Prior knowledge:
Layout: H1 2-36, E1 41-46, H2 47-62, H3 65-85, H4 87-90, E2 93-100, H5 108-121, E3 127-134, H6 139-154, E4 158-168, H7 170-175, E5 180-183, E6 188-190, H8 202-207, H9 232-256, H10 262-265, E7 270-272, H11 273-278, E8 284-285, H12 288-295, E9 300-307, H13 312-336
Parallel strand pairs: 2-3, 2-9, 3-4, 4-5, 4-6, 5-8
Antiparallel strand pairs: 1-9, 6-7
Helix pairs in contact: 5-6
Amino acid sequence: xxxxxxxxxxxxxxxxxxxxLVVLIVVIAASSNRQRHKSGELEVKDLSKAHxxxxxxxxxxxxxxxxxxxxxKKLKAEQKAAKKEKKEESxxxxxxxxxxxSIDAKEVAGLREEVSSVIAIAQxxxxxxxxxxxxxxxxxxxxxxxxxxxxxxxxxxKLTVAVDKVAASGGYMMACIADKLIAAPFAIVGSIGVIAQxxxxxKVLKRNDIEFEQITAGEYKRTLTMFGExxxxxxxxxxxxxxxxxxLFKDFVQSxxxxxxxxxxxxxxxxxxxxxxxxxxxxxxxxxxxxLMDSYADHxxxxxxxHGKKKxxxxxxxxxSSGVEQGVKQVTQSSLWDWTK
Length: 341
């Protein structure tokens, strides 16, 4: 029995040492990788090639031996002809970019790199498909994201935005820039409005005999606060600022989609795709998958995705933030959008 106990302890020690060595190697490798790629990298995928290979694989799986032999002969001849005529090089390119926006629009860091790459190599006839998913967020973050898309339009590069799930508030601010805006039938679109919420703990502080001091220079350096006693004048000023932001939002949308009746759509409401089409918030009911399928015939479809290098603390912070955001979404959706109840 003692032998088994000692042997078990030996195995535990050996396993501990092994795990420590593996962790050390991983840390060293990760550190080395960060040194080599400090600024991140752009990943490029040929979706046309992947699509073609997938179709051929499926076709081969459905053919008998004779049909397979004939198919291989046909494909060989087609590849030879395509190589001779350089058909792929003559096709215009469709650059596919994905933007799944968070509340603070931190994804704009990758978007600006992707847009810059497209602008650097795009030729006449090339276009961009942005697959957009966002419920909105901070004004300055989504304002910058919208500005990145405006860069494409200013360079004469056609931009199509596809909304499969949601493009609301700041998300719609981005979407409205598109030359063509498509949406799935039940995608959520609109919410052209502005909201700000600030909790106030002044009464709690007073009940516990806690004083809060705030010193400012400038009449409106701070209006509403979390800990001070808010005044009607401060509330009025804050409302004015919110209204001014809303007016800027409306002007931006109107300049990009002049056909809209702002009195109907700039109320802060959101609509599903079919309703949004009737209100001219979108141009067509269609998914991004349908758009891609139709594009494979006459475009070389290339997906771009920029991967920025992040520190461990940033990864942990992002994971925690994402967890909270997903939790809020689940609670909201289960309470408002569960049609089975």
